[in-house]
Design a protein that fits this description.
The complex is a heterodimer of chains A (about 625) and B (about 600). Chain A is mainly α and about 625 residues long. Chain A has 33 helices and four strands. Chain A is elongated, with a radius of gyration of 42 Å. Chain B is built from 22 helices and 13 strands. The chains are: A mainly alpha (about 625), B alpha/beta (about 600). At the A-B interface, helix 29, helix 30 and helix 33 of A face helix 8, helix 10, helix 11, helix 12 and helix 15 of B.
């Protein structure tokens, strides 16, 4: 035990306790006095206004920083303020929060009053500025402001319009906070929505770009929450129009919900679709594109193009080209097309053509993959008019349509014997078809395509028939299996094919005659070795590709058989019975002339491309230009 | 090579031989005694006596130091009942020679045999054969007849006696019938020729064995025959070796072109030897062999097969598809080169000034040119030069067209050639570049790997420069159009509107001035190994320097040609025909000097302008 200090801790505590009790008694006494005063003296005296902040402060000290205490004090203050006239309220509020050292605690006292009392917007604007630190820190202040905006939207809008807020950064933040809070506020009267939009518009004009971007991200207006009347819908879109381009995305959400809703009035759907038509484009985000196509999907059957003022498929055209990976968007497009195919075939044809016209590549790629447009292909394969449709597309003046035609021809697997007929080719159509046919490398369907074209030839045109025969002969020589053999049975039906088949047969017969000719019997030094190396290199590349893509390589180890023609496997302590080796192989016909004479093939393609480009230039009205072949 | 040609060669060869084969102080002497000995063996006779010891290794037989008694060779017949005695003479059978060259004494002594010796027990008759490889005169033959009649019909009491006279023609008949084999050549060549016969019977033309075993042996064989001072005998020996080999060729279609290739190397060996001699007899012999073997066989080959050249894509071999285009080019240029050589060889014949001869020649040249045109029109490979040295074949075709004044076709051909070259470059495939290293291996590697084998691969082109210069053979309008197109599109890679064609590589046209001894080097196939291989003339693609005055492209090219001719004058010696030099370039994959075409374009142009 240490000597000297005879005071025990208990004694010290008892002494402190007694002092604390005395203080509590005094504060409680004061509070009781205040309570009695408020009850007995209405309104309380001005002198009490001056004492009130200190009293509240002592109460707070006494009760600690408990939220309940703050609420209690807030309720007390609110009661007090309700009892005094407005000028005293404002003074008292200012006095309560004037002590910067205790401002944080005191702001929460005033929260019920700010939200519950009718205070002048000008006062509030200034009061907000006075209680906020210069750097805007302090989250409780912002909570008070948000609460105020939600409780008193009209007054909050007035505050937000106070010019004093424009002068400082903190002031602008106050305004943004008020307006931002309002976006969550449901059930705003439409006049307030209009007002809010007007403020936002004004705000967007005054802010510098950076602020605008940051602020407006917070300030998405509550466009659709209260906007039931058509006038409000128009106003909302008008507002969106005035937003910077990057911020107009909000319009998509709005228009999308209008377009996709079954309960929205027709005129509002029209407004929404028109807005979408004006704003959706190829570089939009995926969500915006999907929104547009969905809106179309849900609306096109109930709105006719005349009412709409445009063909709704323009929405789908506008989103092109669609990336192959955008499966959700492709799904939406397929829904639209599929519905059209079933409900309005003419419109389907028109629409598919329209999509393919300028951005056919994406559609063709989707068809190539057969997903997600598989369903569409299946649907198309069942309609009677598919051949005529495809055939017409193939000779279209628009490259996108033509290529779609060639693609569909291939994808639908139209056979030479049942290849569709179409209207007789005009000379120009024939030239276009031929050029496109030379570019396309649809080997599997080349015979069917020739048969289709043969049925559309103008037999009175010697030039057209001769040109066709030249083309057909080239392909018969190029693909004896896929073309010549398949066209042979059609020669009786299509007389113009007879000389072609005769010439091709003669060509192959002559070639057969020189198969063993000494002219080409010699070996080429080094070629055998080179071929061996190439086969080995290709096998290596193939192995690597298979290895990379095969799921088996992740699941199982690979064994290399050494000897034997069958195999057994030792696994789990047991040797399995011998199994036979499995082999798979596939073969395809290689286009002869393209390997024998690549220059001529390339020249044909270049000439065909040049012709089509020239055609396009002419259609576009551009000055003609000499084409490089 | 017709039977008549073979007979001619046999006549020349046998006629060129001495009586005895032996090493002498002056070198080797080849006699027809060895032919008789081999012929006896071929007829199934057994050798009883020969005038020399057998040959060993590369050494020739050595003469025996013993009395001949007039007998050079003695054989037993196959059934051992007849004794065949040969009296050999390398002199003409004339009245004078009959005694002067001891025909009579040798015949008398050969007829007088002692048949009582044990080895002659079964002999029932004796046949004395006078064999000589030179001409004869009637009087000489009469002397022979008189003598042989006077010697009677019996030897001793029982054996019959008969005389035969084998003059050169009879010898040829016998050899052709029984000895067209390696044994016909002197013993030191027997082994190598036998080995070659086996190789041509076993290896396929173009195979690895053909390239790596047969051809080196083949070249070595002819070099050894023609080593040292070239004599007419070695020329004919070369010639006579050819039909021997040919009859052993592998029985397959490829041997036909293989035979032509073997002939080509043999011809180059002959022409190379010909350049060393001043003997007009040797020169005539070489020319005869060239005309009667190579050119004749080449013509025969195309007479038999040229119809195939008129069939579209007839030269496409059955190979892996990615190699088809290049393989077809190989074959097409092979034939284009041979037809070009054939054309130029006949075109440069110095015929007597007779209208019917000129007409016949013109017809023949027209036919050859027709074959070439067919080839070019039906085989895209002929329009697809793959190696830079393919400029030789292109030149040969161009040469024929120019000489035949086929200007319209020439313009069409050159335009098509240019377009195809451009298409290749734009297509960007492995044939977009012409192999500047003239190596098929490189091209194959490019196709296999997809990347040029070296950084500089195909970046310089003599072939393109040649096409630039050849365009001066066109009418001025065509020339300027073609030149500008080639320059802009093909060389500089600019489209008609000035935009880039985005060709993958920049190429530069490069000229070449050959060294002074180019003819010797190319005939020997040693240009690549020579210390002085000439001068490369870089053209900067005839682009104008910043400060250079604008001049038409044609003028720039013409100026380049004039300066390069002035700075590096080149003149053909005239020793070898142009066709032979062209063939040497083809065989050795060696460039052709620009003067070959320039002399036909620029000089004549200047002359015309001057006039």
């Amino acid at each position: 035990m240490r000597g000297g200090d005879q005071r025990t801790p208990i004694a010290a505590l008892e002494k402190e306790s007694k002092a604390w009790e005395a203080e509590v008694d005094a504060i409680v006494g004061d509070a009781q006095l205040l309570s009695r005063t408020i009850e007995s003296e209405l309104p309380p005296s001005v002198a009490l206004d001056a004492e009130l902040p200190d009293l509240l402060s002592r109460l707070q000290d006494l009760a600690g920083h408990f939220r309940q205490t703050k609420r209690l004090i807030g309720a007390l203050l609110h009661t007090y303020l309700e009892c005094i006239p407005t000028p005293r309220r404002e003074s008292l509020l200012a006095a309560v929060t004037s002590d910067r050292t205790k401002r944080f605690r005191r702001v929460s006292w005033v929260q019920p009053s700010i939200c519950g009392l009718d205070l002048a917007p000008a006062f509030l604007a200034r009061w907000f500025l006075s209680v906020l630190p210069a750097d805007g820190a302090g989250t409780e202040f912002w909570g008070v402001i948000e609460g105020f905006a939600l409780a008193k939207p009209a007054a909050a809008l007035d505050v937000a319009c106070d010019p004093v807020l424009i002068e400082t950064d903190v002031g602008r933040s106050v305004r943004v906070t008020i307006l931002g809070a309002l976006r969550y506020r449901t059930g705003l009267p439409s006049d307030l929505v209009r007002r809010l939009n007007a403020i936002l518009e004004a705000l967007s004009r005054h802010l510098d770009p950076l602020e605008r971007r940051d602020s407006l991200r917070t300030l998405k207006p509550p466009l659709w929450r209260g906007a039931v009347p058509t006038a409000d819908v128009l106003a909302a879109f008008a507002y969106v129009e005035k937003l910077p381009a990057a911020e107009r995305l909000v319009g998509f959400e709005f228009a999308g919900s209008l377009g996709a809703s079954d309960t929205v009035a027709l005129d509002q759907k029209v407004i929404a679709l028109r807005w979408l038509k004006d704003h959706v484009h190829a570089t939009c985000g995926l969500r915006q594109k999907i929104t547009a196509v969905h809106a179309l999907w849900r609306s096109w059957k109930i709105i006719d193009p005349a009412t709409l003022g445009f063909d709704p498929i323009e929405l789908v055209v506008a989103v092109q080209p669609v990336d192959n990976d955008d499966a959700e968007l492709w799904d939406a497009i397929e829904h639209v097309l599929h519905e059209a195919l079933e409900a309005a075939p003419d419109r389907f044809r028109q629409w598919l053509t329209a999509i393919a016209r300028d951005h056919g590549k994406a559609v063709r790629k989707a068809l190539e993959r057969q997903a997600p447009l598989t369903g569409l292909l299946v649907g198309l394969s069942h309609v009677e008019w598919k051949g005529e449709f495809v055939s017409t597309l193939m000779a279209s003046a628009h490259s996108g349509e033509r290529r779609l035609g060639f693609q569909l021809f291939e994808a639908l697997g139209l056979a030479p014997t049942s290849a569709p007929a179409g209207a007789v080719f005009t000379p120009q159509e024939f030239k276009i078809w031929r050029a496109e046919f030379q570019i396309a490398r649809a080997y599997e369907s080349v015979a069917a395509q020739l048969a289709t074209a043969a049925r559309r030839l103008d037999l009175q045109s010697h030039g057209m028939v001769t040109a066709f025969q030249e083309e057909a002969l080239y392909h018969c020589k190029n693909l004896p299996g896929l073309c010549l053999d398949k066209l042979r049975p059609l020669a009786d039906e299509l007389a113009m094919l007879k000389p072609v088949i005769f010439a091709a047969d003669a060509y192959f017969e002559k070639l057969h005659g020189v198969t063993k000719s000494p002219l080409k019997a010699q070996q080429i030094p080094g070629l055998a070795r080179a071929m061996f190396r190439k086969v080995r290199a290709e096998r290596r590349r193939l192995d690597q590709m298979v290895e990379k893509q095969s799921i088996l390589s992740f699941l199982a180890t690979k064994s290399y058989l050494l000897y034997g023609s069958r195999y057994s496997n030792w696994m789990g302590g047991k040797l399995s019975g011998p199994s036979d080796l499995q082999a798979t192989s596939s073969s395809f016909e290689i286009p002869r002339l393209e390997t024998i004479d690549p220059e001529t093939t390339f020249r044909r393609r270049l000439n065909a491309l040049a012709f089509l480009q020239e055609l396009k230039r002419r259609d576009d009205g551009a000055p003609q230009k000499e084409t490089e072949a | 090579m017709t039977p008549e040609t073979i007979k001619t060669f046999l006549r020349r060869y046998l006629g060129s031989l001495a009586e005895e084969t032996q090493e002498t102080a002056n070198g080797r002497r080849f006699g027809f005694d060895y032919v008789i000995e081999q012929l006896g063996g071929a007829l199934g006779w057994s050798l009883l006596r020969s005038p020399s010891h057998p040959a060993s290794g590369d050494r020739l037989p050595r003469p025996k130091k013993e009395a001949e008694h007039g007998v050079d060779y003695a054989f037993f017949s196959a059934d051992s009942t007849e004794l065949l005695v040969f009296v050999l003479k390398d002199e003409a059978l004339t009245y004078k020679n009959f005694t002067a060259e001891r025909f009579d004494t040798d015949l008398r002594r050969a007829a007088s045999h002692d048949l009582t010796l044990p080895e002659f027990q079964r002999i029932k008759s004796v046949r004395v054969i006078l064999a000589y490889n030179q001409s004869e005169e009637e009087e000489g033959v009469e002397e022979f007849n008189r003598l042989t009649k006077s010697l009677g019909t019996k030897v001793g009491d029982t054996a019959g006696l008969a005389f035969e006279r084998w003059n050169l023609e009879r010898l040829i008949e016998k050899v052709e019938a029984h000895l067209l084999s390696p044994a016909l050549l002197p013993p030191n060549f027997f082994r190598s020729l036998t080995y070659l016969c086996w190789q041509v019977g076993d290896f396929s033309h173009g195979s690895t064995q053909w390239e790596e075993v047969l051809l080196p042996d083949w070249k070595e064989f002819f070099d050894s025959i023609l080593a040292g001072e070239v004599t007419v005998r070695s020329v004919w020996m070369t010639a006579i070796a050819l039909p021997i080999i040919r009859q052993h060729g592998k029985k397959e279609p490829a041997f036909e072109t293989g035979w032509l290739e073997l002939l080509e190397w043999a011809m180059l060996a002959l022409w190379k030897a010909e350049r060393r001699t001043k003997s007009s007899e040797v020169k005539r012999a070489v020319f005869t062999v060239w005309l009667d073997t190579y050119l004749q066989d080449l013509e025969r080959f195309y007479n038999e097969h040229a119809d195939g050249l008129a069939i579209e894509h007839s030269l496409v071999p059955r190979v892996e598809p990615s190699f088809q285009a290049v393989a077809e080019s190989y074959l097409a240029f092979w034939h284009l080169g041979r037809l070009g050589v054939l054309w130029i060889a006949y075109a440069e014949l110095d015929l007597p000034d007779k209208p019917e001869l000129k007409r016949a020649l013109a017809e023949r040249l027209g036919q050859y040119a027709g074959w070439m045109v067919n080839l070019v029109q039906t085989s895209p490979g002929a329009m697809r030069p793959v190696l830079d040295v393919h400029h030789v074949e292109l030149f040969l075709f161009w040469h024929a067209l120019v000489r035949l004044r086929e200007t319209e076709f020439l313009a069409q051909w050159m335009n098509d050639l240019y377009e195809r070259l451009l298409l290749r470059r734009r297509d960007g495939g492995p044939l977009r570049l012409i192999a500047s290293d003239n190596s098929w291996e490189s091209i194959f590697e490019f196709i296999t790997e997809g990347e040029p084998p070296t950084e500089g691969f195909g970046r310089s082109s003599y072939l393109l420069l040649m096409l630039f210069e050849l365009s001066f053979s066109l009418p001025e309008k065509n020339r300027d159009e073609l030149l500008e197109s080639m320059h802009d599109h093909l060389v500089l890679g600019r489209a008609g509107d000035g935009s880039s064609l985005e060709l993958k590589e920049r190429i530069e046209m490069a000229g070449w001035a050959p060294p002074d001894n180019w003819e010797d080097l190319v005939m020997a196939g040693r240009l690549e190994q020579a210390k002085d291989r000439g001068v490369a003339l870089m053209t900067s693609n005839f682009t104008l320097s910043p400060n250079e005055a604008e001049t038409p492209l044609a003028d720039r090219v013409r100026s380049y040609v004039a300066q390069s001719r002035q700075n590096h004058p080149f003149k053909l010696s005239g020793k070898s025909p142009l066709s032979v030099l062209a063939l040497a370039c083809i065989k050795n994959e060696s460039p052709l000097p620009s003067e070959f075409w320039r002399r036909l374009i620029f000089e004549s142009t200047e002359t015309r302008e001057d006039s």
